[in-house]
Amino acid sequence: MRRLLSILGAFGLCACAANAQAEQITLHLTHAFPSRDSLFLKPIAEKFTQQNPDIRIELEGNATDCPALLQQLLRDGVTGSLPDMVSGICYTDMPTLAERGMLTPLDKLIADDDEWKNVGVEPGVLGTTTVEGHVVAIPQSVSASIAYYNMSLIREVRPDLRNLELSWSDILSIADDLKKSTPDVMPLFFEYYADSYNWSFNSLMLSHGGSVFTEDGKIGFNSKAGRDALDLMQRFGQAGMVDMTAEQARQAFASGKIGIYFASNSRLKTLTANAGPSLDIQTGPFPQSAVGGKLASGGGGMAITTKDPGKIAAAWKFLKFASGPEAQTMIVKATGFTPVNTLAVKDAAYLGDYYKANPNALPAIAQLPRIRIQNLYPGDNGPRITTVIRDHLQNVITLKQTPAEVLPEMVANVEKLLPRH
């Protein structure tokens, strides 16, 4: 560790050296969700390089989502071509990478760095990135499902609606009225298909007091909460939801063709910006169906994957900046993610005034006490289990099968993919 700190100190002193100039270090940073995360990673990297001209950040965003990023990193690990850093690793994927030794533990870097306590990341937040007692990444963002309401449409059937803390019964009643009054509009859309580890289905389950998998890796959706969640998805289809890709749905929402849209709060910036000023878009919390119901946490963290001591020192410097209040402000303003930096939230110079001027961001903040990390999908077949569950959910939403028909099939097909003890 002393060697790492001496290297890091050398970076700051070498500019004053009379006979040498520091050689620039290039760090390769891989990330997922290129259309979203590049909106904040690029300016963060540029700002960091301005302040640290001896460190250059090269961004690479080829993975479309969390499962794609995980598979890319696993392949890179086999071929010995891992990047130096990774941004946006989903919390549920960190154990898989950590147990293979692909994520550099950060415990000692944190403990030996006097500057860390001033960065603004609360110690408790590190629980999301701790695997078997070791911090393997720095939390970068938190997201959760929220409801987006096209009030320009909804006021035609609910002219007096002001309070958007609605139950599923309220929402489906509005959807039914929209279906009758405006048949060329899709009443509601629930993003479920392009989910990492069935994230939105996990939120439905958790909000009903259940879980897709139990903490000890057993199937949890074969339960009352699972049946209630599937029944609700069937009602989405009956209310007029058309099955389409998330990208198609986002375009339809921006065009005023969807009344109520359920998606991550990380889409807040793009959904509202694409809709433009002609549509009145407002947000509300994800309905809670059970006392003590929870929500699946999305978002992810930033990790170091290089084993080179010099690059580790430089990468740690970048991680501190990327989780600091200035960078967190960039992330929130570019996406709508919920920040993990308390300094950014409290200080008017960063996000204090932002939330006053952007009430659509408040439901996600209000939901923070409900958010928890969803339980892991057991074994090595997590991506395959995700696909099996997704395909069964599709049959329910498209009304090809009833929840009663789907549930035993889903249980049987998922059981085939579970680890054999």
UniProtKB/TrEMBL annotation:
Signal peptide limits: 1-22
UniProt keywords, alphabetically: Periplasm, Signal
Signal as UniProt keyword: yes
Keyword Signal: yes
Superkingdom, taxonomy of origin: Bacteria
Pfam families reported in the protein's UniProt record: SBP_bac_8 (PF13416)
Alphabetical list of PROSITE patterns matching this protein: PROKAR_LIPOPROTEIN
Cellular localisation: Periplasm
Protein family per UniProt: Belongs to the bacterial solute-binding protein 1 family.
This protein's name: Extracellular solute-binding protein
Species: Rhizobium puerariae
